[in-house]
Design a protein that fits this description.
With 362 residues, the chain is α/β, with parallel strands linked by helices. It has 13 helices and twelve strands. It has a six-stranded parallel beta sheet with strand order 3-2-1-4-5-6, sandwiched between helices. Helix 5 links the parallel strand 4 and strand 5. Helix 5 runs parallel beside helix 6 and helix 8 packs antiparallel against helix 12. The longest helix has 20 residues. The protein is globular and about 55 Å long. The two termini are 18 Å apart.
Length: 362
């Protein structure tokens, strides 16, 4: 935990320098868009503790009355602004972007609730953009459409900043720091969840949307899988397997958002150096073997239902579940990164980084 805090402090200091070196004439440093949602509410509470009066920030969302209620409920400072903005009105999003140096977009699923438009307007208005997406096709689409425009406007667009990306990437960075001038050659991620709080409405909608676009997702994950031949050498030959070193059953997952993003940043460098692509595998242990089998069968059933539009819409509208704060507090995760590093003179080193924490979704 100490290592991670140090790493975060370094990143925070670096971004403060970036922010201070860019002319800032906007009203707010940070705007949390979708602040009245479940995840948005968590971010607002964290903002209240970490930012205080050091940074000027605001909450934004579709309904002003809900924003005012949240402002009053949390006892936010009078300096914390309230901005009414909805993805149904493009001009309201543009006005929000004009007032913010950084927009944290919590309104998902991003492919459904016009994340494309929010990203574009942030770039056009010179606002940096952060979101929590886990939607692989949306992530790839944003990179292809807006990378050049963001570079031209000097804007940072940083998607996939939820658990699924940030924890493994920070762990991998910690592994790299153990060996000077080293390069990653292979990364195996092991996710172990305990008493997870459940799926919230927004995550459920994103899940159904990804399943309905399985062809596009399959193309992306297949492209990733072609670079992961070394995983067979690591002993992961079956989709469900037992790993004695952890005394756990695991199910192997396809390439997820952090795999896509890591490979993007790594792909160009390795190609220029004539090196093979980085091999990344990810495995999940939600419980015992029976739990995994039931989960796989349920996902197969759900996949079939998600292909029928009327059934998919019914499942999306009828689901009003999600974890309570009590459930979230009882949940925990363990993320293990086994990384193989290659040094400047060819020496190899295996590093294991363990990260533990509360509910992985929140």
């Amino acid at each position: 935990l100490k290592t991670f805090k140090t790493k975060l402090q370094k990143l925070h200091s670096k971004h403060l320098v970036m922010a201070q070196s860019t002319p800032a004439n906007k009203e707010f440093d940070i705007v949390v868009f979708g602040a009245t949602g479940f995840t948005g509410g968590y971010i607002v509470r964290e903002m209240q503790e970490t930012c205080g009066t050091v940074r000027s920030w605001a909450i934004a969302g579709r309904t002003r009355s809900k924003l005012n209620s949240l402002h009053e409920e949390l006892g936010l400072s009078e300096s914390v602004g309230v901005i009414q903005a909805t993805v149904d009105e493009e001009e309201s999003i543009r006005e929000m972007c004009k007032r913010a140096d950084l927009v944290i977009n919590c309104v998902g699923p991003y492919a459904v609730y016009r994340g494309d438009m929010v990203t574009r307007l942030c770039i056009e208005e010179g606002s940096c953009y952060v979101d929590l997406t886990g939607e692989i096709d949306f992530l790839e689409l944003m990179r292809d459409k807006y990378n050049q425009l963001a570079e031209e406007n000097g804007v940072f667009v940083i998607p996939a900043c939820g658990y699924v990306s940030m924890v493994p990437e920070l762990a991998i960075n910690c592994a790299l720091e153990t060996m000077t001038s080293s390069q990653l050659s292979c990364v195996d991620l092991y996710q172990i969840f305990k008493n997870t709080g459940g799926v919230h409405t927004g995550t459920w909608h994103s899940f159904l949307d990804v399943m309905s676009k399985w062809r596009r997702t399959y193309q992306l994950t297949t492209r990733m899988e072609k670079t992961q031949a070394s995983s067979l050498k690591q002993g992961i030959k079956w989709p469900i397997y037992y790993k004695s070193s952890y005394n756990k059953w695991f199910v192997r997952l396809p390439a997820s958002s952090h795999c896509i993003r890591l490979s993007q940043s790594d792909r160009g460098k390795r190609t220029r150096r004539g090196e093979p692509a980085l091999a990344i595998t990810e495995s999940l242990s939600p419980g015992g073997l029976l739990t995994i089998i039931v989960m796989v069968l349920a996902l197969m059933h759900l996949f079939v239902l998600a292909q029928i539009s009327c059934v998919r819409n019914f499942l999306a509208k009828s689901y009003r579940g999600g974890p309570t704060h009590e459930m979230v507090n009882k949940s925990s995760f363990r993320c293990v990164v086994d990384a193989t590093l290659t040094g400047a003179v060819g020496e190899r080193k295996n590093v294991r980084v363990n990260v533990t924490g509360g509910d992985p979704g929140h």
